[in-house]
Amino acid sequence: MRAKIRADLAALPHLPAGLVDAVELCASEAFANAVEHTRSGQEGGRVVRSLTRPAHNRLRLAVVDDGTTDTTPRIPCERTAAEWVEAETGRGVLLIAALATGNPCTGNKRAGQ
Q1: What sequence ranges are listed for the domain Histidine kinase/HSP90-like ATPase (predicted)?
Q2: DSSP 45
């Protein structure tokens, strides 16, 4: 996954290295969440990603999965500092939100998320 997104980014002219690294990390985290928290991680599941450049100063990454299960990723807001130190999961969506601009995460509109 990372190699494919990096190859796609390399084909786009004049992208700063930091942006390439950030997009690669966001794509990887979104893909991992799709596999872990949706039907995409089940037999026959799919994850589709697209990378577009709607303007010279904007990239758009979309990661589409096969829909929710009972483990939909959510930003964990109710953790104490000690719980964050011990937490083994729950940072991916926060990481994407910190690196992306605009509206980095949209949920399943049909499910009302």
Answers
A1: 7-100
A2: -
